[in-house]
Amino acid sequence: MIPVIEVGGTHVTAGLVDLAAGRVGRRTHRALDPHGAAGDILGAVCACADALGAPAGATWGMAVPGPFDHERGVGLFAGVGKFEALYGVDVRAALHAGTARPPGDVVFLNDAHAFALGECTAGAARGHSRVVGITLGTGVGSAFVADGRVLDRGPGVPPEGRIDLTTVDGAPLEDSVSRRALVTRYGEPGIDVRDIAARARAGERRARNVLDTAFGTLGAVLGPRLTAFDATVLVVGGSMARSWDLIAPALHTGLAKGGVNGPPSARHTRAVRPAALAGDAALLGAARTVAARHASRTGPG
Question: Which of 101, 137, 189, 271 is the most buried (most CB within 10 A)?
């Protein structure tokens, strides 16, 4: 059983993962304020880890949003509107000092990468060798996975493997596709994305146009990259993916405009799917990364 942590925008979750069975066993949760002080954020993470009861000296996997220095375990959050109190903070050292049963090591990875690897392990991307994973929430996360490895360069892969670094008409993609973008475009105070989705389902044209524009744009941006990457599946997760009935039609339309159409072939995405594992995907992906790190250090036999 591999202990793992996922840090989300408003919560932290710890779990024990049985990677062979592809499932999360015991888990614990704590609320998290992304705008809080460093001590409060790290205190919630350490309390969540302690409640899981993993043995001292275990290697933990930890999925965190970016920007983050994963090798050093140091936060680089600046100008992103969350976790800015952790800028320059050594999170690995904080976990060693702040937990009752300190880890032997902590393997950090990007949360969108963890999501995609989890879906490859036991979810919607299982059995696929070339996978693109997208997470939709406060921003747009991405992972381009080939044969179990997350790539940050190559045909179809955006700079640093981050689709959020691409632009639409000279503006960042997240100005078109993000919680902030949807709320701004709808333009009614006090209305959040869930409200826009509810109004779209009720038949309101204004709400539906806001969603169609955003996810059509996302599809058009992704289309050429999926083709160049030879992706066989696109998996979409994150909090917005709960409204898949609203996202899918516009996303497919955008993908077609971006060149992903016609019958499946080596040059076309074969499947576009919502995430199958919900909150478990990132936990499984983090465990998979710990196992891979261990295997690379020990070698065969």
Answer: 137
